[in-house]
Specification:
This protein is of the alpha+beta class. 50% of the residues lie in helices and 7% in strands.
C-alpha cells in the first residue's frame, strides 16, 4: 500500500472555517467507530455550512458525484458508491442525519439529508405534513421515508460488536436476502437466545433452499420455536462460532 502524501500545512492569510457543534465532540465522536461514517459526518458539516436558505440539506445524487468525497471514502473491497451508501446508512442509523425521499418532477426518487438539528427536524416535519417542498422540485409530492434499520445496526443491537470479517459477511447477506428476511431471522435468533450470526445465516439459507412459511415463522407457536431449536439448528447451541 502506497503511503499517503504528507500535508503541507494550512496556507497563510484568511481561510474559511467550518462550524461544528460542541455535542459532536462530547457525544458523537466517542460513539463513532467507523472511519467512513466519521469522514461523511465531517463532510456534512462542511457542505451544509456552505448552503444557503433557512432549511439546508444535501442531495444524495450530489454526493454521489463528488469525486473528492468518493476518493476519501474509498476502501478495499467496496466500490466508491457502495462505500458512500454504507456511510450514509450509518449516519442515518446513528441519528446524525435525517433522510427524506421525495419524488422529483420526472418521477424519480431523490434522497435528501438534513442535519438532526432543530431546523432539520422542523424541515422534515414540514415535508411530512406537505407544508414545504424543497427548491428544485416544485409541486412534486413528497413523503417521509420510514427507514428499516440497516443490517449493521441490527447486528450491533441484537448480536454484538462488528468486526471487519463480520461486516463483510453482512454485506454479502444484504445482497443475497430480502431485508425483511434478515430482520425476522435475527428476531428468531434473539427469541431463541442464540446470538450468533452463523445461526441467523443458517435460518436464511434454510428459507432460501426449502422455502419460507411466513405464517409459521411469524407465529408465536411452540411448533415454530422448536423448528429452530432442533435438527440442523441444534449445532449452534454449543461452541462459540460467531
Amino acid at each position: 500500500m502506497t503511503p499517503s502524501k504528507g500535508f503541507a500545512g494550512f496556507p497563510e492569510g484568511r481561510i474559511g472555517l467550518t462550524p461544528i457543534p460542541n455535542p459532536f465532540f462530547s457525544e458523537l465522536l466517542p460513539a463513532i467507530d467507523h472511519l467512513g461514517e466519521l469522514k461523511l459526518t465531517l463532510y456534512a458539516f462542511w457542505a451544509l455550512a456552505r448552503k444557503e436558505g433557512a432549511f439546508r440539506y444535501l442531495r444524495g445524487s450530489d454526493m454521489a458525484q463528488d469525486a473528492l468525497l468518493l476518493q476519501a471514502l474509498a476502501e478495499d473491497g467496496l466500490e466508491p458508491e457502495e462505500a458512500l451508501q454504507e456511510a450514509l446508512e450509518r449516519t442515518v442509523a446513528r441519528g446524525t442525519l435525517l433522510k427524506v425521499v421525495i419524488q422529483g418532477s420526472a418521477g424519480e426518487a431523490e434522497q435528501l439529508f438534513f442535519l438532526n438539528s432543530a431546523k432539520g427536524r422542523a424541515a422534515v416535519a414540514a415535508i411530512e405534513a406537505g407544508e414545504w417542498v424543497p427548491s428544485g422540485v416544485p409541486d412534486a409530492p413528497v413523503r417521509l421515508a420510514h427507514e428499516r434499520p440497516n443490517i449493521y445496526t441490527l447486528y450491533e443491537q441484537n448480536i454484538g460488536a462488528l468486526t471487519p470479517m463480520i461486516a463483510e459477511r453482512l454485506r454479502e447477506a444484504e445482497k443475497e436476502y430480502p431485508p425483511e428476511w434478515i430482520e425476522d431471522a435475527m428476531r428468531i435468533a434473539v427469541e431463541n437466545n442464540v446470538r450468533k450470526w452463523r445461526y441467523v445465516e443458517a435460518i436464511l439459507e434454510d428459507w432460501q433452499q426449502r422455502g419460507r412459511d411466513e405464517r409459521e415463522d411469524r407465529g408465536d407457536t411452540e411448533k415454530a420455536r422448536r423448528r429452530y431449536l432442533q435438527g440442523r439448528f441444534a449445532d449452534f447451541w454449543e461452541g462459540d462460532e460467531a
